[in-house]
From TrEMBL:
Entry coiled-coil feature ranges: none
Top-level class of the enzyme under EC nomenclature: hydrolase
Record domain Isochorismatase-like: where: 35-206
SUPFAM superfamilies: Isochorismatase-like hydrolases
Domain of life: Bacteria
Protein name: Maleamate amidohydrolase
InterPro entries per the UniProt record, alphabetical: Isochorismatase-like_dom, Isochorismatase-like_hydrls, Isochorismatase-like_sf
Keywords, comma-separated and alphabetical: Hydrolase
GO terms, molecular function: hydrolase activity
Origin organism lineage: Bacteria, Bacillati, Actinomycetota, Actinomycetes, Micrococcales
């Protein structure tokens, strides 16, 4: 009988390896007109039975990022799963038990988490599947706002965040996934997805790097408003 090589894999070593690969991977680079996209940070996905401490931490990081984005005049877009019928879900979610069962229109579980509350001027886009682009107004909204870069936050990293990133890449948007602001209670899936997105679709960046960008953008726009040339 052949040895089961899968059982002999040291997954801690593998995770360390993909983190190194992710850090070394060539960056695509940011755009000039970003928007922050908040994926599914609603109660159904932030208060369920399987979440761990990482969720509250990611929400706290995200709220800090959103405050900075708004101060810099960067649009904030919330993606929320809202279903008029549970039959609107993809087949796998209808066959298996899924948190999407809590996403019927009017269900309190669909509310955006109070840890990252929407503010006047923010945009809310409803969706029915993992990708924020599938049969939604997201692409049209991004074009209306003149956006060339999506700054990705939300949950889950391996599910709805990744699906939205893939579709954004297909539409040639620049992509910046903020690591501290992305959450996945499936820890290994989240790590692998961060590497996959950095390798194939866009950039994974730190919150501190993005906050510095937003601060610089805020200063630049303030000087422009005052008629001062750099």
């Amino acid at each position: 009988m052949k040895e089961n090589t899968r059982m002999s894999i040291d997954w801690n070593t593998e995770v360390a390896k993909i983190r190194e690969l992710r850090a070394a991977r060539t960056k695509v680079g940011p755009g000039t007109t970003p928007a922050v996209v908040v994926v599914d940070f609603q109660r159904a996905f932030t208060e369920h039975e399987n979440i761990g401490p990482s969720t509250a931490i990611a929400l706290e990081h995200t709220n800090e990022l959103l405050v900075a984005a708004r101060a810099a005049g960067v649009p904030v877009i919330y993606l929320v799963m809202i279903l008029d019928s549970l039959d609107d879900r993809m087949l796998a979610q209808r066959v298996r038990s899924s948190l999407t069962e809590r996403c019927g229109r009017g269900n309190p579980w669909t509310e955006i988490s109070s840890a990252v509350p929407a503010q006047p001027g923010d945009h809310i886009v409803e969706k029915t599947v993992a990708s924020g682009f599938y049969k939604t107004r997201l692409e049209d909204l991004l074009h209306e706002l003149g956006v060339d870069e999506v700054v990705m936050t939300g949950t889950s990293t391996s599910g709805c965040v990744r699906a939205t990133v893939v579709d954004a890449a297909y539409r040639n948007f620049r992509i910046s996934v903020v690591e501290e602001c992305s959450d996945d209670f499936r820890t290994l899936s989240g790590e692998v997805s961060l590497w996959d997105m950095q390798d194939r679709f866009g950039d994974v960046v730190s919150k501190s790097w993005m906050l510095d960008r937003f601060a610089a953008l805020q200063t630049e726009r303030a000087l422009d408003g005052a008629g001062v040339s750099l």
